[in-house]
Structure formats: C-alpha cells, structure tokens
Amino acid sequence: MIFFWSFVVGGLICVIGQLMLDGLRLTPAHTTSMLVVAGAVLDGLGLYEPLIDFAGAGATVPITSFGNSLVHGAMAEAEKNGLVGVITGIFEVTSAGISAAIVFGFLAAILFKPKG
C-alpha cells in the first residue's frame, strides 16, 4: 500500500504544480518557489512530517520537500544554538543535496555538449 499512497501523494503535489502553471499562468520559477514555500509552511505547522510518514517518497521527492528540509533544519539547529542555528541549520541540512546537484550538473556538462 505504501507504493500506492506514495504515487497518489506525489501525483497530487505534481497536479497542484501543473494547475498553478496552467490556471494561474505563473512562470515555472514562480510555481517552484510557491511549492517550496508551501512545503516550508506545512513543516512549520507540523504537517509535513506526518505526510512523509504516510506517503514516503511521494512526499520526499517533490520540490515541496526542499522547503520542508529548510525549515526542519533551521528549527532543529535553533533549538540547540539559538538564532545562529537558524542559518547554520539551513545550510547543514541542504548542503548535501545542493552540492550533489552542482557536481552532477557539472559532470553532465562535461559528458554532453551544452548549448547556450
């Protein structure tokens, strides 16, 4: 059943993004930013972690999970280190994913012929 719910939840997040693109005539950058903020707000309200527990990869793979990671890391570090922890927590939690995106993007540019 976890595969079913993962597919449903991930699909619903993607449907919401597509509806924002088509119905509201937003740019992809605006849509992505709004989904990141939605994930951050849901985590701030304590609603995103139960969604991850319920849907697994259906909630951790979409871009909303990045917002969740930002807030989750900031709040965890803020409890330990105060206000400075807000900044360090954001970088600590997201640095591996951002670094991987940079490295794999660089490797893709080396292996393939980028245009532009």
TrEMBL record:
In Swiss-Prot or TrEMBL terms, this protein is called Stage V sporulation protein AE
| UniProt superkingdom | Bacteria
Pfam families in UniProt:
SpoVAC_SpoVAEB
Q: Name the UniProt key words of this record, in alphabetical order.
A: Membrane, Transmembrane, Transmembrane helix
Its transmembrane ranges are: 83-112
Q: Which gene encodes it?
A: spoVAE
